[in-house]
Amino acid sequence: MSSTKQRDDRRAAWWFLLPVLVGFAVFYGYPAARGIWYSVTDYTMLNTPTYVGAENYTKLLADDQFWNSMLVTAWYVVLNIGSQTLLALGIATLMHRLTRSVALRAMLLLPWLVPNVTVGLLWMWLLDTNLGFVNHLLDAIGVGPVGFFTDESWAMPSVAAVNTWAYTGYTALLLYAGMLQIPHYLYESAAIDGAPEWRMFRGITLPLLRPVLALVLVVSLIGSFQIFDTIAVTTKGGPVAATRVIYYFIYQQAFKFFHLSYAAAAAICLALVLGVLTAIQMRLLRASRSDLA
Amino acid sequence: MNRRSRAGAALLALAVAGGLAACTKADDEAAGPVTLNYWLWDDNQKASYQQCADAFHTANPDVTIKISQSAWNEYWQNLTTQIAAGDAPDVWTNQGSYYPQFVSSGQILDIQPYVTADKVDLSQYSGGLADLFTKGDQRFGLPKDWDTMALVYNTEHFTKQGIDPASLQNLTWNPTDGGTFEQVIAKATVDANGRNGLDPAFDKTKVKVFGFLPEWADGSQGQNGWGELAASNGFTYLDKNPWGTQYKYDDPKLAETIDWFKHLIAKGYSPALDKASTLSRDALLNAGTGALTVSGSWMINSYLGEGAKLKFAFAPLPAGPQGRKTAINGLSDAIWAGTKHKDEAWKWVKYLASADCQNVVGGNGVVFPAIKSASEKALAAHQSKGRDVQVFVSEATAPGGTYFLPITEHGNEVSQIVQDAIQAAVLGADTATTLKKANEQVNALFK
Lengths: 293, 447
Known about the structure:
CATH class of the largest domain in chain A: Mainly Alpha
Shape of chain A: globular
CATH architecture of the largest domain in chain B: 3-Layer(aba) Sandwich
Strand content of chain B: 5-15%
Mean pLDDT of chain A: 88
Largest sheet of chain A: none
Structural class of chain B: alpha+beta
CATH superfamily of the largest domain in chain B: Periplasmic binding protein-like II
Helix content of chain A: over 70%
Number of helices of chain A: 12
CATH superfamily of the largest domain in chain A: MetI-like
Number of domains of chain B: 2
Strand content of chain A: under 5%
Largest sheet of chain B: 7 strands, mixed
CATH topology of the largest domain in chain B: D-Maltodextrin-Binding Protein, domain 2
Number of strands of chain B: 14
Oligomer: heterodimer
Number of helices of chain B: 17
Distance between the termini of chain A: 39 Å
Helix content of chain B: 40-55%
Radius of gyration of chain A: 24 Å
Mean pLDDT of chain B: 90
Number of domains of chain A: 2
Number of strands of chain A: 0
Distance between the termini of chain B: 67 Å
Structural class of chain A: mainly alpha
CATH architecture of the largest domain in chain A: Orthogonal Bundle
Shape of chain B: globular
């Protein structure tokens, strides 16, 4: 009797899951399968795809531009994740320990609410070598103009800085939420023992924040790899190929050169890299789960 | 439950009926009134072509033209997607770098049989434009308009620097000393102390107004500067145009030209690429930080229109060792090979390429139509608004004074490779070696 009832529940569950499963199959499963199929064909969008085996992959592995875009993306991820996480951690700590003003929290989120294309345009004007406000300031203090988006060595740090500006508030808010879960008495007893703020940060906040920090890192790492819009607006991959990140490379191959199958192969390589990175980070996440128990 | 299933059945019945209705409607269309979809990208021209479409509809009440306009980048993506989905517009506007792939994939209708049958006079179009869209004895479009290039300068600044506008009419240029062109550029360059580029005390580290603004994001053609000067130095892009398969970017004539631009930068007359602005050159000219650049006839309304903050004027390009050369670029209208209404589409394309429509477009003074008489109308329209744009027409009609931008397969890839190479050279790499390597990469695409 009870076993039949259980089976009934399970059948009902499948019905409830059905919309999601259909959605997943239609919007994720099918396109992913198509993508994998295209990556082993010679599809250009205007022909009937024929199977070419691993040709796209062997070509890709020998393509300097592909490796350059991977390298450039990695450089961006390091710059962006580094600056964004450190800044966000600092801001979150200040919000947690110094002030809990709601107005301040709302303000922090403002840049995140601005559409990325607008952010790109805004900073393109502000940082412009010739007409930009920032260069006017630099000029006033006697530092020569800096080609933030046109100098090969400056372009990527500039893009990373722009995105850090846009996303730090959001990251800080996530970390702040994590900090709120840390029991207050820990800080109180530390304060009674006369521990300075810096000591409390290192001894209490940082270790107890680890699960949240790990989650934030996973999410922002994947997000970072997907950098596209800021670059499409400001540098268009240039100067030369200094900011031609992997997403821009894929976009160009697919929609500028119409090498759909080649772009699909590159996208699948990217998915593999992201999968491995996420797996590593997920392990770190699980390892730190018991800290607050 | 019962009621709901009945409602469902009713809905289903409605949907089926709707579907049937849609079917019959589609069948009707094939026999009776036809709606043709026509695509273009330039929002400035949409109104003119709507006028043409209305006139066409009056003459052919059975055919309605539905014009869709989308911005340049989206245009080609949308078009390719629609073609892939088997639902392309019946007629669309083409341009040299994107159009070859549609030809090679068999998406554009060969209209030569129609042209022969209807005896379209191909000689009515400005020099050679009609041949640009042929391959062998096939024809993939009729010409619509053209554009040429000229110098554009800040008139007030030039007057203040004591440069006589008349002297700009016959500028010379060569890659060794830059000719009178370089003299003008030097004189138009001003540093923070108000000294110009010819002054021995000129401070190139504190330039306030650059004499010349080059464009380095200019693909494989350099239409906005290096292409014209290289051509006037004897450079040709490829073995034959259209449909060549061997590019010549390793030509020393091109390297010499790029080196001259690098020399302008070294002198402080042009901004270095790594210290250049990402903003468009017209923004910089309007801001007064640049005095002179090369611009196309499609920019006439931006520089001479009400939107311009300063006063500008056009002047002919300088004449190089091989004379004065301007790129002339033409657009065409093409018919989708998969259209259900081939005859109607041909009628429309023929009308678009006729004096009737091109006179309307010319009269609005937005672009120069391909038909000579319609171009005159455009010129007159500009003159009536007090805009002197004669230089574009004079250059277009000068014997041996124009060259076509390359039309080949792999246009966009060539563009990226060459642009990267030119930027690398301008940033400091050895020009000849960089271009030679790029040329090898480009030609490898055709193997």
